[in-house]
Amino acid sequence: MMPRLLIICQLLVGFILALAHATPFNVVHPNRTLIVLSAPSVWDDNYREDFLEIIAFQIELAKTIHEHENVVIIADKHTMPYLDGRSARVKKRLPYDALIEANVYDVNINDFAPIGFKQLTKFIYRTDNLADMASSQIDKSMTRFLNDHRVKVDKREQDMVLSGEDVIHNGVNKALVSDNVILRNAGRLPDWAMMIKLLNAFKKVLVVENPLNGTRLRFDDVMGFIDEQILAVSPIEADVRERLETAVKKKFRSDLSLIDLPLGGAPNDAGNCGIYTSVISTNKYVYVPVFGSDPSNWKFGYSTMTDRMVVHLLEANSRRKIIPVNIPRALCRRGLSLRSIAWSVRGYAADNIVNHARQTALRH
């Protein structure tokens, strides 16, 4: 009798311990934002040189985000072993409920994912950085992902082209849109029709000139909402900065303030290295890129001292918690930014993605 009782007790203890270690990575919660990342494909020649560094960074970013929000990484079946621990070339891994196997064809997922908070809208994705055929294939891969995983989108826009790189917003009631959008849709739609579609996705919209047209930087690199009422701006020409502030005050009056952030290193460095304004901002947190912890950046003038100064400045101007994220040079010299590689999702769409990841994990 005693041996049998002992065996039962051991089984119960084992079961309890198993439950303790089976805490889900993601939970469905109405106040949580889901951050979705798209891993580079192991077969993509564009990222071959920095593939392992990008994967390692995405794993670290996912673990940082997981402390506060839900997070999922999408990867194809050949790339998945580098994320789930089956490849010896990557030391760290993520649990299965933080991963979804699918073919999404680019890392910059925020550019071509559905966008908007008044209505979550899937616009047509095109970009000046790729041939129309290539951007069309990327766009179709996102559409397949949405359909296959039953992700609820309020509207699928059939006429208007809009890339996430040309939009910054506060997730609540304000959006700034680059005038590149007007040029891109010339001949497709009249200006008034474009504005209606933008207003349907975002409550209040201001179209502004791209502060750095003709440079290596993107519109969403040089400006970023820290919260509902604070817009951070990287160094730009004085006359452009003045026109931007005039337009913002005219549109939003005292409901939006601008703060200036410094550059982290050399003014003409590669990609978006040293640009602090390409943030991920959620309901309670702001994930801010910092550059001084990577030794590869030190010879270009980056330091943790400047990083700390920027973090303190943002903490003094926002009630949201500021979370610094170390950006390796392999990422920023390519022009990949925190905002471009991260799609922020809320509501039913987020719940569908989280539930799919958790159901997939149960099969493992």
From TrEMBL:
Residues 1-22 form the signal peptide. GO terms for biological process: putrescine biosynthetic process. InterPro entries: Peptidyl-Arg-deiminase_porph (IPR007466). Keywords: Hydrolase, Signal. The keyword Hydrolase applies. It holds the Pfam family PAD_porph. GO terms for molecular function: protein-arginine deiminase activity. This is ULP_PROTEASE domain-containing protein.
